[in-house]
Amino acid sequence: MQRNSRVCLNLYGLNEMTPKKRAWQWCSRYIRLRDCLAYCERMAIDLIQFHRIEDLPVACCTCGAIRTFRQVDAGHYFGRREGGSSGTYFDERNINAQCKTCNGFQQGNFHSYTTFMQKKYSQEVIDELYIKHIGGKKYQVGEFTAIGLYYKGAYEALVKEVS
Prior knowledge:
The protein has one domain (about 15-160).
């Protein structure tokens, strides 16, 4: 007798989304859409030609490759530390659209990301983010829920702006 794969996933807890994952999912969507819209505005691209948000173009913040919403990650300048926590995990200045090659295979492409951050923000902002990062932050479950709701609302507001 063959088991239903969906039931097996639920038995092992693999199909359940934690509040942190849910918050990150909405944060990632918001950041990627924010950067897509900024890129389209900067390049004077008319959004009317795109039927789906997933098709909007964006430039990778580190290598400059043009990808679509679906083809980029929301990459962190300062990632999680050894303990898994960072005071900058949900800080919007610390997260930008990054192609999967730079974010994953090149482990963030830190040198190019630094150049990008200095141009977009400033060295002072980088220093502030570093201090927040090393300070760490232990989030409570309720905080993740609130962060998730905030980013869900921010994402939906951008979607309305596009429509």
